[in-house]
Amino acid sequence: MIAAVIVDVDDTLCLTEEASFHCENDVLARMGRPPMSRERHLATWGAPLLEAIPHRSPGVDLREFAALFPAMQQRYLADGRLDVIPPENLATLDHLVGDGRTVLLLTSREEDEVRHLLAPDHILAARLGGAYHGGNTRFRKPDPRAFDELLAETRLTPAECVYVGDSPGDALAAGGAGLRFIACLQAGVRRRDEFDDRFVTATVDTFPEILPVIRQWDAGR
Predict the structure, then answer these.
(1) Buried-most residue among 10, 28, 34, 155 (CB within 10 A)?
(2) CATH no. of 4-15+84-218
């Protein structure tokens, strides 16, 4: 049986790339800098923000951007424009928990970028068994060791887990760690042909479609 379903945050649980693109451009505008193109944002999507922004906006003052970004992020969150979890995705988490599975998050975000998602009053609070991020893991995807702390602390084996993500790096990390991987293409950010078939166990067009896939595995199909 699949005991744990580990879920990526960006463009898997939440559809965040487009909102993040606008949020980052609003920060650049505050700095008096020209906007980045959507193509440039997509080309570096998935990398930690402060590593990616110099490529998205060459010559940017990284310290100034880092100082201005949190307030803009909070504004987007307050306006309901960022980290919005579709109701059908929440319902899917409820079904997973109802099936007796543990739901965990694993993301490359830094701790301050996920703190609001892990707050005791957040809608995820009763649905999550834990979360792993830049603040409590030593390695980042696509390094397979990104799962080290999760597996050690939960005492789960890779065979008991599946990782659901949206990027080739997610697949590489999961496959390298011995986990099954479901590629979720709902955000439209990635194409199926961008993934290495060796590391993809299944592909779905929407997050809720992971339910029948996992249940079929449990049934031996």
Answers:
(1) 10
(2) 3.40.50.1000
Q: Model confidence at 79, in pLDDT bands (50, 70, 90)?
A: very high
Helix (H) or strand (E) holding 71: helix 62-78
Contact 203, 182 (CB under 8 A): yes
Query: Rounded CA gap, 110 and 59, in Å?
Result: 23
CA-nearest of 68, 36, 71, 74 to 54 is 36
What does the pLDDT look like over 20-31, one tens digit per residue?
A: 999 999 999 999
**R_g of the chain computed on alpha carbons:** 17
pLDDT at 112 over 90: no
Is residue 134 within 8 Å of residue 109, measured between CB atoms?
A: yes
Q: What is the pTM of this model?
A: 0.90
Q: According to the model, what pLDDT value does residue 221 have?
A: 65
**Residues of each domain in the chain carrying CATH 3.40.50.1000:** 4-15+84-218
Q: How far apart are CA 85 and CA 14, in angstroms?
A: 5
Torsion of CA 118, 73, 16, 78, to 10 degrees: 70
Contact by Cβ (8 Å): 104, 128: yes
